[in-house]
Here is the input.
Amino acid sequence: MAPSLSPIRSHHVAVIGAGAAGLVAARELRREGHSVVVFERQKQVGGTWIYTDHIEPDPLSVDPTRSVVHSSVYGSLRTNLPRECMGYRDFPFTIRSGVSESRDPRRFPSHSEVLAYLQDFAKEFAIEEMIRFETAVVKVAPAVDSDGGEGIGKWRIESMEKEKKVRCDEIYDAVVVCNGHYIEPRLAEIPGISSWPGKEMHSHNYRTPEPFRDQVVVLIGNSASADDISRDIARVAKEVHVACRSNEADTFIKRPGYSHLWMHSMIESVHEDGSVVFQNGKTISVDVIMHCTGYKYHFPFLETNGNVTVDDNRVGPLYKDVFPPAFAPWLSFIGIPWKVVPFPMFELQSKWIAGVLSGRIPLPSKEDMLMEIKTLYATLEAQGIAKRYTHQMGITQFEYNHWLASQCGCSETEEWRKEMYLTTGVRKRAHPETYRDEWDDHHLVSQAYQDFSLYA
Ligand code: FAD
Here is the structure.
């Protein structure tokens, strides 16, 4: 076991970010008795759900000096999970009665409804009083003692307040990183791209279809974004082509219901005359290539002397995707796993961190944590799973949630939530056009609302 913390101790904790992760982290830390400061560089809560027309000046978002636009949300975005499944466990994402017309009562609502829900959450639990808005964390590093050694469990945080340009340098006992993971784009490698004359961009900078009117557009990727955006753009574009590396080399399929939307295998090369050649042998003349190829974990403010690294999108070493053993429990991360139901998982991770910090929940020794991580890496390697999939969960998220819940002494994920996640996935794959408006899991919705009555 790690040196035990005196039980139920309160600490001074910094949370970086006031998105869905930071909000629930702040609530759980305060509930546990810690004093909390949340740093948020935007002027409101909600993180990625704060839709903006603004896009970054560099359409590929690779210029490190660019001014960052945080949100990746596009105008037509509706959730890809039903609201009952998506919400925090004890603050259900239900249809709010008596609220303004701008609320969206649909089961798979628009991005603005998610933002409104997060604002409701912040209000209900008075989170805003803990937040320093428009204050960006620029550096987080282990604090150095007066004798020159690193003070275990102490962190120096440098932050910058936007309006008055006030730089602040403070010491905290612990830091919880909730900075979001959909900001720093990953790009596909395309042979010949340096001399291709068309326009390239990342889906991070996509907002509306209008700029693509009468254009020929190629999207790369097979994510929810590629799926949604290709159909959004098809409303106005001349032709839309989706290239995907996981498709068979000879793939060339017209999307049902469309005369000008095709699925292809990956791009083989692009050329000076503006043409794009796919692995299936098709050649087309293209105006725009959009990378819908996901994002990289990025912690530009974090200085850990190499104790936490991002290597091919593996953040490590992290015990249970949360604590780096070298700094546990004084540094932690929320929201690293992907292919999950995020909000309820953030809630469990937050409860765990809060309880470990107060000394109520024990952690294994540093050596045991490292051993477990080593075993995980070896297992992934033996299964031929690339590093960049280390934090992908899917079905295993429920086992993970179950483990977190047992550590925290709270109930495990509701059976209806699991089933709803799985049935939605099946419907999404079978009926990508209609899954948000037609469903047959009414019994699960009833069970969810029975549970929700506990929190009314
Ligand atoms: P974010 O929401 O990104 O919040 C991070 C916060 O940290 C931001 O407010 C940012 O300003 C702040 N910040 C960052 N760096 C600093 C700094 N240095 N100093 C101070 N503040 C900082 N999830 C679902 O459940 N359902 C969906 O349908 C769904 N659809 C999605 C669609 C898209 C296009 C994207 C990108 C994501 C989607 N997600 C969906 C996942 C979504 O990211 C999570 O639901 C969740 O909102 C992530 O919350 P977060 O707090 O981890 O990050």
In short: The first strand starts at residue 12 and ends at 16. The first helix runs from residue 20 to 31.
